Amino acid sequence: MNIAEQQRAPFNTNFGSDNTAGASDEIMQALLTCNSGAAAPYGNDEYSLRAEQRLSEIFECPVSVFIVTTGSAANALSLSLLTPAWGNIYCHVDSHINNDECAAPEFFSGAKLVATQGADSKLDIDQLSAFCGHKRGDVHSTQPACVSISQATETGSIYTIDEISAISKVCKSNGLSLHMDGARFANALCALDCTPAQMTWQAGVDILSFGASKNGALSVEAIVLFDQSHSEELGYRRKRAGHLCSKMRFQAAQLDAYLADDLWLRNAQQANAMAQYLATGLAQVDAISIQGKVEANIIFCQMPATLFEALQAEGFYFYSGRWGKDVCRLVTSFATQSRDIDHFVSCAKRLALNV
């Protein structure tokens, strides 16, 4: 079943990614509204200014906001600000910047990604500490510069506030900056039930890639800079990278609507709740076993290859094979409904009888 057929189907059968969902109605309406009349270009429009004000209120401090169109751009530009060309960017081996951004962070910064290990796709403090002191001051080697963490991680795990603070402490004691890839920031925030300030600058995060596209927006992400002394430089870097859109109002209107009336939180709560509901349903299928904790909107489970293939033949779409033998990944989104999950679980139960 192709994408067009899935969209016409009575159930949403695509659990491949939260990127497969469309945009929230509120986002689409905001685009129509902002299309009327003229607006100042290059981020000087009312929507851009309002979005920055909303984020300052959300994070309980003045912030500088740089709107871009992709998460890869947000990560690459953020990291380029934090490291010289001879620097090391420490990240987890499973991170998006290490696996899925075609070396964009290295291209824009000139620096070197150094992938480290750690359980649940989270950085190991002891290993990070060891790396931070490696060949420091040796002119023949790249030098420790910054650390990047993903919240939530690529496998759906979530750093606690204490874990973020501990990583920040290592960074600060070694003169490193801390970046957070928040492509699923809202999902992690809802799962932790904390404030945005507690999960970021109060825990020692210097710069945040604030995700929106995976959670109901169309084509907008934001770089949130907590240390505004670097704002001028980041402005030049964004322009040089081609992400200072002339008609920025169309990106900013999405971000403004995303933040208004807690749409971003409601969407994340729906995605998270559906992941829990899906995990509960799949646990009732004898041939399926849930792998690890379900914290955000990503589920890993183990099922026989024959069942996976049977579900694919029924029109369901999700990934298998990358994470181990017979291990599958399913992702829910703000658009996922309980009826979609009931349909999936019902089919899995029926097909499992023949496995």
How many structural domains?
2
- Order of strands, main sheet, comes to 1-7-6-5-4-2-3
Structural class: alpha/beta
DSSP summary, beta strand count? 11
For this structure, what is the CATH homologous superfamily of the largest domain? Type I PLP-dependent aspartate aminotransferase-like (Major domain)
End-to-end gap: 22 Å
Order of helices and strands: HHHEHEHHEHEHEHHEEHHHEEHEEH
* Major sheet details: 7 strands, mixed
Number of helices: 15
What is the helical fraction, as a range of percent? Answer: 40-55%
Parts with pLDDT < 50 across at least 5 consecutive residues: 1-8
Overall shape: globular
User: Would you identify the CATH architecture of the largest domain?
Assistant: 3-Layer(aba) Sandwich
Instruction: Report the oligomer.
Output: single chain
Description:
- The chain is α/β, with parallel strands linked by helices and about 350 residues long.
- It has 2 domains: about 5-20 and about 270-350, Aspartate Aminotransferase, domain 1, CATH 3.90.1150; about 25-265, Type I PLP-dependent aspartate aminotransferase-like (Major domain) (Aspartate Aminotransferase, domain 2, 3-Layer(aba) Sandwich), CATH 3.40.640.10.
- Helix content is about 40%, strand content about 15%.
- It has helices at about 5-10, 25-35, 45-60, 70-80, 95-100, 105-110, 125-130, 160-175, 185-190, 195-200, 230-240, 250-260, 265-280, 305-315, 340-350; strands spanning about 65-70, 85-90, 110-115, 145-150, 175-180, 205-210, 220-225, 290, 300, 320, 325-330.
- The strands form 2 sheets. It has a 7-stranded mixed sheet, sandwiched between helices. It has a 4-stranded antiparallel sheet with strand order 8-9-11-10, with helices on one face.
- A hairpin with a 6-residue loop joins strand 10 and strand 11.
- The relative contact order is 0.17.
- The model is unreliable at about 1-10 (pLDDT under 50).
